[in-house]
Amino acid sequence: MTDAGAGFIAHIDEYPGCENEFRDWRSMVASDIGGEWGG
After folding, report:
1. In the prediction, which pLDDT does 23 show?
2. pTM above 0.85?
3. Which among 8, 9, 10, 36 would be 20 to 30 A from 19, CA to CA?
4. pLDDT tens string for the chain (39 positions)?
5. Spans of all domains in the chain
6. How far is CA 22 from CA 2, 7, in A?
7. Could you write out the three-class secondary structure of the chain?
């Protein structure tokens, strides 16, 4: 990946499995971060 922004989006567009893993990770940490993270 070239960066964590647009490069990350391009990466998950190319590799759908990574998008699924990211969604799983995000759902697991969302409650830990609460209102501190808008992602």
Report:
1. 86
2. no
3. 36
4. 566 688 888 888 899 888 889 888 888 887 777 666 655
5. 4-34
6. 17, 14
7. CCCCCHHHHHHHHHCHHHHHHHHHHHHHHHHHHHHHCCC
